[in-house]
Amino acid sequence: MTEFEKQCYGMSEADIREQYMESITARHAGLEMVVMGILSDAQEMVEVGYKENVRLYLNRAKFILSEMLENKGTTDSDYLDSAAHLDQVE
Questions:
Q1: CA-CA distances (angstroms) from residue 4 to 42, 49, 58, 59?
Q2: What pTM value is reported for the model?
């Protein structure tokens, strides 16, 4: 684990991928549910005053979201520039 990873996430990026992104929850419910779970954990930590842990958990959620965006096949602007979304507008 690098110093950056330690300070930012409290664990390595490889560990985030293994423990969160390759978890049973991720496989069955998707990464969105994993992120929601992390955010829920952070909410609970706010209630009990674990400020440092909240920051780490939020950074973990942001890392997963950034990985999701990086792996996304098309960008939102590509989608909006195409005619694919027009049938969804009433």
A1: 20, 24, 15, 12
A2: 0.77
Question: Which tokens belong to 4?
Answer: 């950056």
- What residue type is 16 in one-letter code? I
Q: What is the SS3 assignment for 16-70?
A: HHHHHHCCHHHHHHCHHHHHHHHHHHHHHHHHHCCHHHHHHHHHHHHHHHHHHHH
**pLDDT, tens digit (0-9, with 9 covering 90-100), for 63-88:** 999 999 988 865 555 555 555 545 55
Distance CA 43, CA 66 (A): 21
